[in-house]
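Fill-in record for Autoinducer 2 import system permease protein LsrC.
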Amino acid sequence: MSTVQDTATATTAPPGLAERLGMTGGAAALRLRFVGVVVFQLLLVVVFTAVAPRFLTWDNAQSILFTAAILAIAAAGQTLVVLTGNLDLSVGSIMGLSAYVVFDVASGAPVLQPWVVLLALLVGVVLGAFNGFLVAVVQIPSIVATLGTLSIYRGFVSFYADATEVTSGELPRWIRTLATESWFGLSSYVWLALGIVLVVGFALRSLPWGRQIYAYGSNPRAAYFYGLGSRRIVIGAYVGAGAIAAVVGLLLGAQVGNINSLLASGIELQVLAAVVIGGVSIWGGSGSVYGAAFGAVVLATINNGLVLLGVQEFYRLLFQGAAIVLAVAVDAMVQRRVQSAGNRRRTLGVTA
């Protein structure tokens, strides 16, 4: 196949390619999984309302949405990676490193303070690209590669911070007030999360790059056969995830105020939980960033309800881990059904 044909195939995604890569069954499975998540959320609301009278109030609903906003943005970045059939366990370390380094540099150079978002994006792109390089070029399994960079990035920010903090007074004024602002009755973070999720969702569904991510995640071998560059797709997904994680780090830092080297430590489990609970297939190629964002709302609802009931942190982690296992188990069953249906269709086609 010529280079011109490769490029045309990769950028235009001709009709029928998605079906030949097995995405039709995955889309149907996604709809079923998402309906199940919505039903589960409704059950949570009913149960927590019955046992915790303070749960169903406007103030508490705002608290849930505020908590879910940070998680939803981070889940949007993780979705890009998971759709390729990979994982990014370094998201929390990227958040912490980006927030600390960018705010520390900006505090020492006031002229840079208006540009903190661009600085964070640059840091996130570099860190994400390194993750993608390890996975796509060096071909280290993603869970191993990003588990290693989780420690590398966290170790770097610990060395850089040297047991010091960036205090809230050193943050740019506009970023300090962002976490407390409300727009049209909702926290600014909720609107920012909604905007970022919509942009990522549009990119995945409407841009050639997004369609290539789905095609590659559905069937990497077939995607390669049709001329899609696997390394470019995987590295691009990690770059996008890194950039988004860096922005989330800024928002979380503004919310916390005093930033140390442990910022966002341990958030990886929550982000992954939001993605898989929201119906994104851990095997790639199927899922939606909107589902991942909704998964963040589900997690925030669970945590909020358990806090109102006075449940200890240990048991909240237990419920969260059980939710991940259950979501992955359901996803595995759905994938087996999709593959079985695909095999039957191919057999009937051959017989016909």
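KEY FINDING: Residues 313-351 form the longest helix (39 residues).
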